[in-house]
């Protein structure tokens, strides 16, 4: 690539300049902000994405198949929480939040069970322009109606800034112990991997060309 072409590509965000990207590394629950990787499974791939749609690392990132590196935090159903990243998210694409109930202790849970989605941040279209929710912190609340118990709480940034290239998944999982919940059985659910397909319109979208609508990949959001 000629240097001038490279500069143009960098300006458009088409090329990743550094090998580094970003990682969700900090959790807040209510007014309590925890330390880096406190209650979040520590990944082993620095701040790199997962790019294979069939890899178990899509669940909780590379190195995140167990909770050996961290601990569990009590959360009340309805509590607000937030995931923060080391640097603000700077790749365009949707951000989603998922949960999966551990069959026993969440520390030992590999995320192979059912996942339900609790929230999506997609693009906003205005005046022919799409804007994406790219920021440092993503806040939502634990659904009030879900059952008490231990869960993985997962955030995913699906980076589709490079149309034609392989989309990138930036993922972290927190370990939470829900109290004060209800009796709901969340649906729809999906397995990870499996929830995201190479043919999903939200996976293949070209955000720079005739981009007027967008469907976030994965199951529909569960609402209490
Ligand atoms: C989860 O909360 C329940 C209810 O307070 C408690 O009995 C249990 O020990 C907690 N589990 C963990 C792993 O903290
Ligand atoms: Cu990147």
From TrEMBL:
Signal peptide, first to last residue: 1-20
Primary location: secreted
Domain Auxiliary Activity family 9 catalytic: start-end pairs: 21-212
InterPro entries cross-referenced by the UniProt entry: AA9, AA9_LPMO
GO BP field: cellulose catabolic process
Subcellular location as annotated: Secreted
EC number: 1.14.99.56
Keyword Nucleotide-binding annotated: no
Cellular component terms per the entry's GO annotation: extracellular region
Reactions performed catalytically: [(1->4)-beta-D-glucosyl]n+m + reduced acceptor + O2 = 4-dehydro-beta-D-glucosyl-[(1->4)-beta-D-glucosyl]n-1 + [(1->4)-beta-D-glucosyl]m + acceptor + H2O
Single GO term (MF): metal ion binding
Keywords, alphabetical: Carbohydrate metabolism, Cellulose degradation, Copper, Disulfide bond, Metal-binding, Monooxygenase, Oxidoreductase, Polysaccharide degradation, Secreted, Signal
Enzyme class: oxidoreductase
CDD domains: LPMO_AA9 (cd21175)
Cofactor: Cu(2+)
Family: Belongs to the polysaccharide monooxygenase AA9 family.
The protein's name: lytic cellulose monooxygenase (C4-dehydrogenating)
Source species of the chain: Corynascus novoguineensis
Lineage, top ranks: Eukaryota, Fungi, Dikarya, Ascomycota, Pezizomycotina
